[in-house]
Amino acid sequence: MIYILSTSKNILPDECLDNVMFLNLLGIKLLDFSVDEKLLADSKYIILTSKNSVKSILRNSDANSFLQKKAIAIGSATANEWMEAGGEILFCPRISCNGRKLAQMLKKFRSKELKGNKVLYPCARDRLTDFAKLLSGICNVIDISVYESYEKNNYEGVEDLVKNAEKNSIFIFGSPNIYKSFVNNYGWRQDWIAISLGATTFSYFDRNIRKANANGNFKDALDLARSLESTNKLGDRKV
Predict the structure, then answer these.
(1) pTM for the complete prediction?
(2) How many helical (H) and strand (E) elements, i.e. helices and strands, does the chain have?
(3) Is 154 exposed, middle or buried (0-12, 13-18, 19+ CB in 10 A)?
(4) CA 41 – CA 83 distance, rounded (Å)
């Protein structure tokens, strides 16, 4: 059995979902926020590590001003969300990466553009990456909390499903927080397999579990899960 753990169910077409079950452990709350007018005007770029950041920006009264900033996106899904809203992309890695790796690539490939600039980072209240520290020698990154996640009260139903999960069940995790919430509440069986969409979530997987990195979106992760399911090539694998 394949389980997809995400804050949204509308991520895949119905025809892809045979023998797939969605589990939604976390909710997302978009936050009201404001940015100093001068800071917003003086900032040339924006760092985006989640589609939730884009969604929160678009409901803000300063959305048009934010959309004037060229974005540094952590992955293609976030980049596409920004471009569909009318924004431009300065940099997006070809292969999914985590925040630390993104910072390293920015130092290598985009330090000239970023040098001395103010860069806005709309992020989760419990953000995972400290870009202000990682890029301190190049630019001034300003964090803005624009959304937060919270645990839903659906443990009893999920607990029954998890308790009866088949051997070698595969779990696709949409974010590090979802993985942490799942493991903290339900534990982990050694025969299960965890799949991440990208490097950030993969880096949060426990060392001694079966795991794989899809390096893509939910469709890529599901394709990988079906491949592992059909060929029984299970183990600590990064693709």
Answers:
(1) 0.80
(2) 11, 11
(3) exposed
(4) 20
